[in-house]
Amino acid sequence: MSQDHGKKTLSYPIPNDAPLEPPAEWARLRRQCPVARVELPSGDEASLLTRYDDVKQVLADPRFTRLLNADDAARLSADDSGGLFSSEMAQVIPDSGEGHQRWRRLVGKWFTAKRMAALRPVMEEMADQLIDDMVKLGRPADLKASLGFPLPVYVICDLLGVPAADRDRFAYWSDTMLNLTKFAKVEIDAAQAEFAQYMSEHVAAKREQPGEDLISELIRSADADGGGLSDVELLVTGIALLVAGHETTANMIGKMVGMLLADRTRWERLLADRSLVRTAVEESLRFDANSGFGLPRYLREETEVGGTVLPRGTTVICSMAAANRDESVFDGADEMDLSRSPNPHLSFGSGAHSCLGQALARTELQVVLEVLLRRLPTLELAVPVDELPKVDGLVVGGLREVPVRW
């Protein structure tokens, strides 16, 4: 790889051995080459954005679409499955315009901060139960497997009205859809087909016998105003919420605890002042250097970004994690400040496509932190920070395990 990355192509994702630290390349790219040519795992080229203002501009600009199935769009992975981003399912939910707004309006009613606050006691009970099980098995324990991974599945299954007994199948389907390198195309296709079949039967069952869950609510709101979601839209909505809401939050729980225990003065500070939980969660989201692939966008027409003219047909990768370390926006961007406020990080995106489930994710992260501080104040990492094993190939990035003791 040439040292002159301004002109030559950089391999992407940028190799990085440190589990919790950013690649040194980010700061250099923000400074010298904010719109960098990169080569994706497929061998195709894309443009990588690392500055806050550029990433925010692209995420809010409707000319940059999330559909990567155009003939000249870059393929993300070698087998051209593209995982979640270029599947047929990604095209069912409208990408922009009135159709997209209608979908967000119907589904978004469920994801208000008020609704999430009502779910809090249920989440706390789940977290307490999972910690009970972890403590019974003894230490050291893997916090990600014991708490980080199961909790979001329990919560999403609860939201969708799916039996908790099916959560292991959900976890596998979610993993295949978000992994660019771990599974062969045949496995990804099979998982997507099984998942679609399951959700199709689930939607049909909810039409017959509605409950108090999100799918039933969407069916009811459709009947009420006649402008609801079709069965296929309901099916895709269920799949999208599980995939988006499970793997990302499971990984973030592990990374957040890892970051807070990596320098134990952070944990001590939270033990001394529980009112910092909310800002500590926001700062963990901003500080997360291992957030995975970033958001790919396809450009329908020529546009200028960061002083660079991008031709029509360009695929852009927005690195929100690199943008969240931009010194021009965050004072002491490379310091983890648990009381940082305001904190306008881009971890949930920006604009019309900002993460629909961000109130849910925030609530889960806050609950996990509150329950851990209360139940396991002596919690610490069971391995040195640089030995935390990273996940490879996953779109959302993360730690494979978070070994802890108490």
Automatic annotation (TrEMBL):
It comes from the Bacteria. GO terms for molecular function: heme binding; iron ion binding; monooxygenase activity; oxidoreductase activity, acting on paired donors, with incorporation or reduction of molecular oxygen. Coiled coil: none annotated. Keywords: Heme, Iron, Metal-binding, Monooxygenase, Oxidoreductase. InterPro entries: Cyt_P450, Cyt_P450_B, Cyt_P450_CS, Cyt_P450_sf. The keyword Heme applies. The keyword Heme applies. Its cofactor is heme. Transmembrane segments: none annotated. Belongs to the cytochrome P450 family. This is Cytochrome P450. It comes from Nonomuraea cavernae.
